[in-house]
Here is the input.
Amino acid sequence: MFTALAAKHGHYCPMSTLGLRIGWAAWRKLQAGSCKLTYLTRTCAIDGIQLVLNHEPLQIDEQGRHLLRVTDAGRCRQIELRPETLNLAASYQQLTGSDEAEKLLKELRYADEDRLLKIEKVEALQ
Ligand SMILES: [Zn+2]
Here is the structure.
């Protein structure tokens, strides 16, 4: 899957990797049937999310938040990257050695979902 992602996305990067993690989390929560997906910022993560969710239409609502909103039969769930996760992803830019970079990507691929993502139900959309 990570290889397919790099092929689609054009490079390995932390945000597209996290997009896969968000996509997997969303996929497990989805019921059969239609749902509406909205991501609140334009980033590399979009490619990862769409790869997992089979190119389900994904709206972008630019609010500068790394958050996927899944609305399904009147219920809504939000999957957001934790601030620590964003810091980790941002630190990727500072890494000079490819070993270190590879190590960080591995961490983002396999870290516990709870550590990376905050998932909550919301009653109504504002
Ligand atoms: Zn990227």
